[in-house]
């Protein structure tokens, strides 16, 4: 079956760096997405990786290794507003999105 | 530019009642979809559409119906509500085709409780 694994919860300190990992086993691969979801709100798009390597967008970076079925989201200079759930999703060979359960990130002052 | 608009935001139903969740987008997206989000689980696809007049089932379609008579609207109907359908529902839309990311834009969500 298809599976996306990410840690359930992580805690980090304001101003620090945190890495959220995502491993996947899917039928084919047509891109990996990271979304941010604040409590009670809709998911919003953060990043997209389709080729191996690092994509950087300001304080956020996302890495992909297709051979290892692995991605991570790196958040630098953490701010309190980064407290949210981070969802990893993979688009499979049928162009359907398979979603992980999300990682709840708690930022402490 | 409103994006994806969902109504209602909150709804309480009794078992056996029917209702429709409304979804409209103003971005001329071909692809529209309905997801449900339950604690401890990833988003699960209920139904989707790749254009007006075309709909298909997702991972968890039982108990739900959809139609797509226009590009803009994609309502989700619960035929006879059950407590297992208590969830948060999201409508999402995107472009299709090409080699781009075709990022999903989500509505604000509809929290449904079935008693």
What do you see in this structure?
The complex is a heterodimer of chains A (109) and B (115). Chain A has 109 residues and is mainly beta. In chain A, 0% of the residues lie in helices and 57% in strands. Chain A is built from no helices and eleven strands. In chain A, the strands form two sheets. In chain A, strands 2, 4, 5, 9, 10 and 11 form a six-stranded mixed beta sheet that branches. A five-stranded antiparallel beta sheet of chain A has the order 1-3-8-7-6, with no helix packed on it. In chain A, a hairpin with a 2-residue loop joins strand 6 (53-57) and strand 7. The model of chain A has no long low-confidence stretch (mean pLDDT 96). Chain B is mainly β and 115 residues long. In chain B, 0% of the residues lie in helices and 48% in strands. Chain B has strands spanning 4-7, 10-13, 19-25, 31-37, 44-51, 54-57, 64-66, 76-78, 87-94, 105-106, 110-114. In chain B, strands 2, 4, 5, 6, 9, 10 and 11 form a seven-stranded mixed beta sheet that branches. Chain B has a four-stranded antiparallel beta sheet with strand order 1-3-8-7, with no helix packed on it. The radius of gyration of chain B is 14 Å and the shape is globular. Chain B starts with a strand and ends with a strand. The mean pLDDT of chain B is 95. At the A-B interface, strand 5 and strand 10 of A face strand 10 of B.
Task: Name the features.
heterodimer; A: 109 residues; mainly beta; six-stranded mixed β-sheet; globular; B: 115 residues; seven-stranded mixed β-sheet; four-stranded antiparallel β-sheet; 11 strands; 0% helix
Structural class determined from secondary elements of chain B? mainly beta
Mass-distribution shape of chain A: globular
How big is the Rg of chain B? 14 Å
Mean pLDDT of chain A: 96
Number of helices of chain B: 0
**Mean of pLDDT of chain B:** 95
Biggest pleated sheet of chain A:
6 strands, mixed
Order of helices and strands of chain B: EEEEEEEEEEE
Give start-end ranges of low-pLDDT stretches of chain B: none
- Apparent shape of chain B: globular
Helix content of chain B: under 10%
* Strand percent estimate of chain B: over 45%
- What's the quaternary structure here? heterodimer
Q: Main beta sheet of chain B: strand number and arrangement?
A: 7 strands, mixed
Largest interface: A-B, 21 and 16 residues
Q: Calculate Rg of chain A over CA atoms.
A: 13 Å
Distance between the termini of chain A: 40 Å
String of helices and strands of chain A: EEEEEEEEEEE
């Amino acid at each position: 079956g298809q599976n996306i694994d990410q840690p359930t919860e992580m805690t980090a300190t304001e101003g620090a760096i945190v890495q959220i990992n995502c491993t996947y086993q899917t039928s084919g691969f047509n891109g990996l997405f990271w979304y941010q979801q604040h409590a009670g709100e809709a998911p919003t798009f953060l990043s997209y990786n389709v080729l191996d390597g690092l994509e950087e967008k300001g304080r956020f970076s996302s890495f992909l290794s297709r051979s290892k079925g692995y991605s991570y989201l790196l958040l630098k200079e953490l701010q309190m507003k980064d407290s949210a759930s981070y969802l990893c999703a993979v688009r499979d060979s049928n162009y359907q999105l398979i979603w992980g359960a999300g990682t709840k990130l708690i930022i402490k002052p | 530019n409103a994006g994806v608009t969902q109504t209602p935001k909150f709804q309480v139903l009794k078992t056996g009642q029917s209702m429709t969740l409304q979804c409209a987008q103003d971005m001329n997206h071909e692809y529209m979809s309905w997801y449900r989000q339950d604690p401890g689980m990833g988003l699960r696809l209920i139904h989707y559409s790749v254009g007006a007049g075309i709909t298909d089932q997702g991972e968890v379609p039982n108990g739900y119906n959809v139609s797509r008579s226009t590009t803009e609207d994609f309502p989700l109907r619960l035929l006879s509500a059950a407590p297992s359908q208590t969830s948060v529902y999201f409508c999402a839309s995107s472009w299709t085709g090409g080699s781009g990311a075709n990022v999903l834009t989500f509505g604000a969500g509809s929290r449904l409780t079935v008693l």
